[in-house]
Amino acid sequence: MKRYTRTGDKGETSLIGSRVEKSHPQIEAMGHLDELNSQIGLAIAHQEDETLRIQLTKIQHDLFDLGSELMYAEAPPKMVDLSIVTELERWMDEWEESCPELVRFILPGGSVAAASLHVARAVCRRVERDLAALGVADRQLPYFNRLSDYLFTVARYANVVAGVPDQEYARGAAVFQPKRKKE
């Protein structure tokens, strides 16, 4: 099968049910979602922790599923079970136990593994903004909101694994409340 179709040579592409300009906001959102998935792929290549690699690969599959809902010109069928939001929360809670207490804002970076996750987090926020602007994927917003939190958390964990401390924002105040000890 040939990889090229020539159907997009004049600046149009297909959604299910319609042809649209390649600059259409829905196509823009799908492009950013593809960029997010690619950034996560790059982040996987830099991770040492096998459990983290497995989780990130599952997220890549989830992103393909969520992207399939964006392929419809009209209201898409609900194809994705958003219990995956709860899964992200559970994973985050587990990773956070290995991270030092967060007191101030931190700068994105540290190890290459962490920096790649921070880039994915920033792209995830862009996807979230795209979806909010479209208004067609409101039900997906909790997933992308939680995914960006997850990527932040695992970026911090990747720095722990690499033995690289998070770099606090130098001019920031202590903004996070200390964890309460369980009684």
Automatic annotation (TrEMBL):
GO terms for biological process: cobalamin biosynthetic process. Its EC number is 2.5.1.17. InterPro entries: CblAdoTrfase-like, CblAdoTrfase-like_sf, PduO-typ. Pathway: Cofactor biosynthesis; adenosylcobalamin biosynthesis; adenosylcobalamin from cob(II)yrinate a,c-diamide: step 2/7. It catalyses: 2 cob(II)yrinate a,c diamide + reduced [electron-transfer flavoprotein] + 2 ATP = 2 adenosylcob(III)yrinate a,c-diamide + 2 triphosphate + oxidized [electron-transfer flavoprotein] + 3 H(+); 2 cob(II)alamin + reduced [electron-transfer flavoprotein] + 2 ATP = 2 adenosylcob(III)alamin + 2 triphosphate + oxidized [electron-transfer flavoprotein] + 3 H(+). It is an enzyme of class 2 (transferase). The keyword Lipoprotein does not apply. One of its GO terms (molecular function) is corrinoid adenosyltransferase activity. The keyword Nucleotide-binding applies. Keywords: ATP-binding, Cobalamin biosynthesis, Nucleotide-binding, Transferase. Residues 4-158 form the Cobalamin adenosyltransferase-like domain. Homotrimer. NCBIfam families: PduO_Nterm. Belongs to the Cob(I)alamin adenosyltransferase family. This is Corrinoid adenosyltransferase. It comes from Exiguobacterium sp. (strain ATCC BAA-1283 / AT1b).
